[in-house]
UniProtKB/TrEMBL annotation:
Family annotation (PANTHER family): GLUTAMYL-TRNA(GLN) AMIDOTRANSFERASE SUBUNIT C, MITOCHONDRIAL (PTHR15004:SF0)
GO MF annotations in UniProt: asparaginyl-tRNA synthase (glutamine-hydrolyzing) activity; ATP binding; glutaminyl-tRNA synthase (glutamine-hydrolyzing) activity; transferase activity
InterPro entries in alphabetical order: Asp/Glu-ADT_sf_sub_c, GatC
Organism from which the protein derives: Aquicoccus porphyridii
Protein name as it appears in the record: Aspartyl/glutamyl-tRNA(Asn/Gln) amidotransferase subunit C
UniProt EC number: 6.3.5.-
SUPFAM superfamilies: Glu-tRNAGln amidotransferase C subunit (SSF141000)
A Pfam family that the UniProt record links to this protein: GatC
Role played: Allows the formation of correctly charged Asn-tRNA(Asn) or Gln-tRNA(Gln) through the transamidation of misacylated Asp-tRNA(Asn) or Glu-tRNA(Gln) in organisms which lack either or both of asparaginyl-tRNA or glutaminyl-tRNA synthetases. The reaction takes place in the presence of glutamine and ATP through an activated phospho-Asp-tRNA(Asn) or phospho-Glu-tRNA(Gln).
One BP annotation, GO: glutaminyl-tRNAGln biosynthesis via transamidation
Keyword Ligase annotated: yes
Amino acid sequence: MSIDKETAAKVAKLARIRVDDDRLEALAGEFNAVLGFIEQLGEVDVEGVEPMVSVTPMRLKRREDVVTDGGMQKKVLSNAPDAREGFFAVPKVVE
């Protein structure tokens, strides 16, 4: 697959990125380089290779999954412009 100037302009518009017309050719070249690299990755034989989350083998820290209220109600509500009876107070918007 090859990206041309028009496709690069369309991608930039969809991503809400302003790209000058004189930079579109270079952007299309960068997209093509990325797509070429992805095609190279598709050629690699990964049969029997375990997925990794890090280059060094390590276990993630685990904690007991317990539901709590956080214990910080006063601290959280201290930033609220209006708090009543332990909750955020907001203006009524629905009749």
